[in-house]
Amino acid sequence: MRIIGIETSCDETGVAVYDSEQGLLSHALYSQVELHAEYGGVVPELASRDHVRKILPLLDNVLSQAKTARSEIDGIAYTEGPGLVGALLVGAAVGRSLAWALGVPHVGVHHMEGHLLAPMLEETPPEFPFIALLVSGGHTMLVEVSGVGQYQILGDTLDDAVGEAFDKTAKLLDLGYPGGPAIEKLAELGDPDRLTFPRPMVNRPGLEFSFSGLKTFALNTWQELGDSEKNKADISRAFQDAVLETLAIKCKRAIQQTGVKRLVLAGGVSANKALRARMQRMVEKEQAEVFYPRMEFCTDNGAMIAFAGHLRLLAGERGGEGFKAQPRWSLEDLVAP
Ligand code: KG4
Ligand code: ZN
Fold first, then answer.
1. 304: CA distance to ligand 2 center in Å?
2. CA distance 145 to 136
3. What is the pLDDT averaged over residues 32-44?
4. Is 128-292 a CATH 3.30.420.40 domain?
5. Residues 289, 294, 299: CA angle, nearest 5 degrees
6. pLDDT (mean) for 190-201
7. The pLDDT value given to residue 248
């Protein structure tokens, strides 16, 4: 079965062709980062319009890269949610129309399911069950994954998502957007021993997160120390260390609590190299293993949607007559195909 996957939930237009026998045949991504950078965050209406402009050229591009004619396509998967409603509608409408025109089945995919299954595109995929830490601009979640569509949320964030905390802190420090890569780069220059930020929620039992206090802590520290490149680098380092330590403590707790020794890290923040190094140390101590998507599939992309969609279509799942976008949609509402 050869399918097209379409991702348009936020500020990246991603399209891919996946074949159930041959694996990923092609993928293409257009990032709107530059478009939104001058506003310091994603502007939903501009995002929708840019998806409209980019999606058809990207489709042609992945089909020709995959040396695939439209008539060879057996199904279409698109991101149904969660995300920005206008942006989601672009991918859903194009995906649904294409399925209708080609006379093939379609399926709407949960964006976070795409992220958490993305490491299965790699050469050594994790086996079920595994624990997934989903860390993106909109989500921070620990999930126990028993199989496709079998997700139990172990812990969620009470306020900001981790990526959001990176973005907001970067904005306060005038580092630009998106904040994650900017803070990671500056943190490398920072002194690890100068400042210590609090580790939120680690002294309480449970697997919940809270990151909104850290940006205020960063701002207050910056105002106290004064504006200089060195201060900004030291603050970035202390902020990042606090976030990574907190994530590692909670992942370790989830491993100990469930006895599941496979950990998957996915979502935009899992591209952070310091996070990967920190998690590596933790899993070695726990005699567990950690799996990641390749760097380019940590952030939003069409390949993860094509992959999750192909599993659901192969299992016989079919979208109905119409199509919908679900801006808010819990992972726990999903069922096995
Ligand atoms: O998964 P993603 O591309 O989009 C969402 O579904 O949200 O994640 C984007 C988020 C942004 O908040 C961005 O700042 C963060 O991931 N991010 C990073 C890094 N690269 C992207 N955060 C920390 N370190 C990074 N290297
Ligand atoms: Zn995402």
1. 10
2. 18
3. 92
4. yes
5. 110
6. 97
7. 98
pLDDT digits (tens, 9 = 90+) for 88-110: 999 999 999 999 999 999 999 99
312 compared with 40, residue with greater pLDDT: 312
- Separation CA 257–CA 189 (nearest Å): 36
DSSP codes, 188-236: TTS-TTT-----TTTTSSSS-B--HHHHHHHHHHHHHH-S-HHHHHHHH
Question: Which residue is it, tokens 């942006």?
Answer: 87
| Residue 258 tokens, joined | 């469930």
User: CATH number of the domain at 2-117+297-333, please?
Assistant: 3.30.420.40
Q: Where in the chain is the domain with CATH 3.30.420.40?
A: 2-117+297-333, 128-292
268 close to ligand 1 (CB < 6 Angstrom):
yes
Using pLDDT thresholds of 50, 70 and 90, give the confidence band for residue 33.
Answer: very high
Amino acid, single-letter form, for residue 65? Q
pLDDT at 69 over 90: yes
Ligand 2 centroid from CA 306, angstroms: 14
Whether 14 lines ligand 1, by a CB cut-off of 6 Å, is no
- pLDDT in the model for residue 41: 87
**pLDDT at 276 > cutoff 90:** yes
